[in-house]
Amino acid sequence: MTLALPHIGALPAGARNSIADVPGVTVGHCTLAEGACQTGVTVVRPHGGNLFTDKVPAAATVLNGFGKSVGLVQVEELGVLETPIALSNTFAVGALAQAQIRQAIAANPEIGRAWPTVNALVFECNDGYLNDIQAMAVQEAHYMQACAAAGVDFAQGAVGAGRGMSSFGLKGGIGSASRQEGEYHVGALVLANFGTMPAFTVAGTRIGGLLAERLQAYAQAQVEAGPEKGSIIMILATDAPLDARQLRRLSLRAGAGLARTGSVFGHGSGDIALAFSTAYTVPQQADAPMPALAMLHETRLDALFHAAADSVEQAILHALWQADTVHGRDGNQRVALRALMPELPQWLQRQAPAPTN
C-alpha cells in the first residue's frame, strides 16, 4: 500500500482529495504506452451536460507563456468555457481541437451556421523526452475515449496526458487534490512537466540534493543541469459562486502553490492556470434566462485563495508520488519518486518542527 504524503495546509481535503470533490466535475484518461509512444489525453468535464448551450464561468492566468495552447483568447474575452478541457502533448493540440469541434457540432448541429463557432480549449506540455512526439500518435479517437472514461474516480501519475511528462528530473504526470472551506470546495488538477531537481521542495523541505545522490546511485544517471524548461498546466474548479473576474484572481493563486514546490516559472516554462466555477451556467441562447444569484463577497475570497495554493501544491506532489518509472524513446527513462525515496512520508514527518506549547 502506498503511504500518503503529508497534508498541505490547515484546510481539510474533500472526500476524494481530488478535483472531483467539486460537484459535477469528472476526469477521464486515454493512455498510450507502447515502446517509444508514451503519451495520452486527459479530459476535465465541468459538468455532464451540453457545455456549449450551458457554459460555465472561467478565467485564466498565464504565469509564463512558453506554451502552445488553444482557446485562451476567447476565455479571456468572454469568461466562459464551452467545451471540456483537454490536456495532452504539444503536437497533439491540433488533433484535439478538431476532436472538440466535431464533438460540439455533433451535439449542436447549428454551430458555425445559425449559431456561432465553438471555442476549443486544449492545453499542452512537451513530453518529447520520453515520448516520440514527432509520431503525432494522439488522434480524435483518443480524445473521445478519454471523454467516455470521465468519472469522479480516476488514476493519477503516469496516465493520460501525464504518461510521458517529467518533473524535477523525475517522472511527472497528472495529480489532483482538493480543499474544503465551509460549504465550498476548491479542487486542483495539474499536468506536471516542470522543475529542476536541486530546487525540488516537499512540504517546505528541500529534498532535491538527496534525490540527486540517490538517482546517480539508482540509475547511474547524471542529474540534468541547466535552467527550468518544462511546463505545468493547473486547472482549478470550485462550487463557490464567482464571476470571471474573481475566477481570474483565484487562478493566479495557483502560482503560490507552484512556487512552494521549487519553481520560479523559468524562461522556457509554460505555466498556465485556469479556474472555473460550477455554481451556475451561462446560456448560449439569448432567450434563455441568465442566472440570478449573488456572487461571493470579495472579503470571503482569502480562504479560497489558501485552498487554491494548498490544493495545487498537493496535486503536484501527488503527480510525482503516484507516478511509476517509465521507459520511453531512445532508451530514455524517468525514475519514479517512490522508487528513489519510498520512505518519503515518514522522512518528512521527522523533519517537521516539534509543536510549541
Automatic annotation (TrEMBL):
Transmembrane regions listed in the UniProt entry: none
Matching Pfam families: Peptidase_S58
InterPro entries to which the protein is assigned, alphabetical: ArgJ-like_dom_sf, Peptidase_S58_DmpA
Domain of life of the source: Bacteria
Family statement: Belongs to the peptidase S58 family.
Protein's name in the database: P1 family peptidase
Organism, scientific name: Cupriavidus basilensis
